[in-house]
Design brief:
The chain has 286 residues and is an alpha+beta fold. The chain is 32% helix and 12% strand. The longest helix has 17 residues.
């Protein structure tokens, strides 16, 4: 079975040089009928023609929609409101970083701060956090080294790169442990630390693991802290992320150029009150 699209031609219009009331009424009626027939979606096809002002316009098709969904990929979203543009609200915050703009992760350079140490001493958290923890990970590391044929006395920095990567990020092969009935792959030091952090019940225990973390810019929102739908919305061709990155003077000019919608509250500070916005020398408000 294949999906089919059936287009219905609702009207054909020739745009006059000076559209009158009758033309506007016909255009409005045609748009309403097209939206009703297309269940909220209409397509305007502009045919290649010469305009009254002498310009030649090439043929093109534009899709319009009343739905909060992309007609091409089908992604839908809730109606945009003021809270959609606030990273302090769950309706606007990036779901990946929860509106923080950055993600914490276990940093290999903090987990293995001195790579000149032998393997048996190199993994810092495995040599801390209590005697039972030390003994368990000593035996675990010995079994890993035995299975992958590396020496515990070899400096960490001189171990094969593939082994170091597997040790940190996990091996694909099952790890055989004498005290375990079912063999399964070793998850990796970093994943093990993350799991134990997630299982920690008190702040003191969490702090011990968080000491091995660093942070980086969220890969999904790029540090903007907003969800994709909020970043995709534009006004006069600019998203809120682009506007927030503008110097104050440039942002003021941007809003002034948009004009003031009738009946709306003022958007831009009056020139008669220059103290309303006082930017830093760099041109940005911090």
């Amino acid at each position: 079975k294949k999906a089919h699209t059936i287009d219905v031609v609702v009207d054909r219009l020739v745009i006059p040089a000076a559209p009158d009331a009758a033309f506007k009424t016909r255009l409005t009626d045609s748009v309403e009928l097209a939206l009703k027939t297309g269940k909220g979606i209409l397509e305007v096809e502009r045919l290649g023609a010469s305009c009254p002002d002498g310009r030649t316009v090439s043929g093109q098709s534009t899709t319009y929609s009343e739905l909060n969904a992309c007609p091409d990929c089908g992604i839908s979203f809730d109606e945009l409101k003021a809270r959609s543009f606030s990273f302090n609200s769950p309706f606007g915050a990036c779901p990946t970083c929860a509106g923080l703009g950055q993600l914490y992760y276990f940093d290999e350079d903090l987990v293995v701060p001195d790579k000149s140490l032998p393997l048996e001493e190199a993994i810092h958290p495995w040599r801390r956090m209590g005697q039972m923890n030390i003994l368990y990970h000593r035996e675990l590391l010995a079994q890993i080294a035995k299975q992958y044929k590396v020496r515990l006395s070899t400096p960490y920095e001189k171990l094969p790169a593939k082994f170091r990567h597997g040790l940190m990020h996990g091996f694909k092969d099952d790890l055989v442990l004498p005290w375990r009935r079912v063999d399964r792959p070793f998850e990796g030091v970093l994943a093990s630390l993350q799991r134990r952090l997630d299982e920690a019940e008190d702040d003191e225990s969490k702090a011990k693991f968080e000491a091995y973390q660093s942070f980086r810019t969220c890969p999904d929102c790029g540090g903007s802290r907003l969800r994709p739908e909020s970043r995709a919305a534009t006004v006069a061709g600019k998203s809120i992320v682009e506007v927030m990155a503008m110097p104050v003077t440039e942002a003021l000019e941007f809003f002034k150029a948009m004009g003031q919608p009738a009946g709306s509250a003022p958007m831009v500070a009056s020139d008669s009150n220059p103290q309303t916005l006082k930017p830093f020398p760099s041109g940005f408000i911090r």
